[in-house]
Batch of 3 targets.
Target 1
Amino acid sequence: MTTTNIPLITTVLKSRLGIARDDKSSISKNQFYVSEQSIDFILENPQDFVIGPLKGSLDLCNYVNSKIQVKHMLELNCFQGELSSIFAYKLNPNVLNVVERFASRPKTDTINDDESIFKHNWENVKHNFYLRSKQHPCIVLHECDEVTAISKLQDDSLDFIYLGSNTKPEKVKELILACLPKLRSGGIIAGAEWGTSDTVSSVTGILSNVDAYFEDGSWVKKVNKAKLEATTQKLKNIQNSRIGIGVHEQFFATDTDIKFLSMLDNPVKVYLTGFLDFTEYLKKDSEQRGFKIKRIVEINCYQGETTSLMAKFLNPEELTVIDQFDKVDPSWPKNIALEDIRYNFKLRTKPYPYVKVIDDVDALEAVDRFEDNSIDMIYINEYASYQYCWRLLAQWLPKVRTDGYICGWHWGSGNIVQACLDHFGEPDIFFKDSSWSKIKVWDNE
């Protein structure tokens, strides 16, 4: 079928994906353009098009329109703007925020067909998005990662949120938890790929169930935020956090958040419950040995997640953190501004006045500010090079008093493991979050 046979849907004449490119090219079977005429044409010619994606999208819009009026909305992972243009046309919002990085994503085993976005040139995808979106002035593009885009939006400001496809299954919960504070009560959250076991378990794990699902794989849920908060104890105890809520490895040292996060089935639960097991071990072991953990040093605190948990559960007299917040390890997520890391650390540790910060020098230089045998416990959040880990241990071990605790994170990393083995052998115990502990049973030489 050539474009001469279907003049009603050649509104995007300069597409770069072989779609209505000239009068000899065919139209890809899962690409559609938005006008009443073109929609009717596609639906009336099922022999020439795969109509499920279009029909399902239209049914989703009709469902949403029957429930609420959409003035402000958000679509994550808009790709070429097919759904964006349908949302703009059918929902007619004042503002349609769309998010797309227009950059390669890691390929997953769940998406490997010929039409996969992983096979496309992202410059062409961006080109086609602009061809579609220029017809709809309500569309506002956020060319960044999802979490950064979500953080820019005000709480309770959105009527409708759509989580686009090709999102890693393990990230679905993270994005839902980040989006929920932005959705007004009575608003609707929806997404793609209903029917895959990962999506179903991720969505129902937070929202309990969905209200409907459609032929294109979309699902939809109208959210009663008061009811949801009562059943899930929404993670919003740090009101002014600049990262959003429920982001990977984020947990807050409050009883309600700890209870909620401990029920989740995702990496956050592993990190949190593993670290809680670690603090429980320290409490019990120190009590049995009559050893009081009064003075703790933590090397590299990031945003203060572990700092706040140690402060809450170990209740030391002094907890000194050594971290140069403007020199974060490059392996950390790029979607968090350096000033926000420091800001969020302050929010988390504000309830604990005995938390002190050394940020003018790194841990190798700060060691001279502590006397030998003056620390009851050290926790090393470090998994850099073997040489650096070895130097940290060499310089800080004398500062820990005999019978004190040498602890850290990332047991399993070859660098920290080898450095520990070279200094004192295996730790006494390690935990599922990769924390580890060793009692210093030797005196300084």
Note: Residues 1-30, 106-118, 230-239, 242-250 have pLDDT under 50 and may be disordered.
Target 2
Amino acid sequence: MKLRTMLRAGSVLAVIFVATVGMRALQAEAARAGNHCSHGIKTCTASQVGQPCDPNNLNVICSAQADGSYCCLAYAH
């Protein structure tokens, strides 16, 4: 194998390795930073924001949180 080809292959592998490590770090940071509701609080989706989470209890509304999560929270009328 030529030296140029070996260097090119090595640099490609290095870029893949760095990208993989970076992606794993971002995923771990997102898991630690939140993106979840407190224990006992039901989660919901972004498309449900502003809608009742439970049709039998219209006071529990899906709400977007500052950490990027969506949680079902009780609101008083």
Note: Helices lie at 3-33.
Target 3
Amino acid sequence: MIQFYDIFERAFNLFSDPDIDRKYYNDKAGFQSDMLDFLILGKNKFTSPTAITDKLVICADPVGYEESDSGDGTAKYVLEQQVANNGEGVGFTYRIGKEKVRGTYDPTDNSVTFEREVGTDETWIVSWFYAGAFTADFSNCLRSDFPMEAIMDKVINILAYALLSAWGDKEVGRVLDVRNILTDTDFDMYSPANSARAKMEWRNQMNRDMDTLVSELNWRIMATPKGGSNFGK
């Protein structure tokens, strides 16, 4: 099994975007929801080895929920809805009124604890989102002598780059749309960091990095003892 959350974490460390940073630190539920869309698009760019990629169609469905209630002067509250996957790999967003705050989840009693007490005149809100997982048994898609832990780690890296590439596709399209409506005068004030060329170069680099990882994965599998004609058996 590959938790989508693990892929998102790898991808986040490769982003260089202030909006993504803010979402990650202040709205983990929203971050996971956004990243899921790009993972779904990006995984279609990962096409080999088919012994692994064919398994990527087997997924656990995403699920999310939001609860709110009036405060009672304490910081801890028990949720009515059971959090998916016992809270593992789930993105939480905590708010008191309109203010986003820190909080923690305790799976032992399905409770949340805010960073401060919630007054009786205030409302607490908890949103959570579980993006899902690739649930296939990858251990039976290759021979038993393959180093599956190392291979799965590389697969997670490839999927992270695939996600980044899909996000880059969207950014390139967005910047091209902006460029098409700007005048020559606007271009004098437009930041080169947000130019279509910069976005394209970043996206293309993600594609090259992903291609390199895919090649390394294929080579590693084929170079394993008893590889070659027995590949994937």
Note: Residues 2-62+133-230 form one domain.
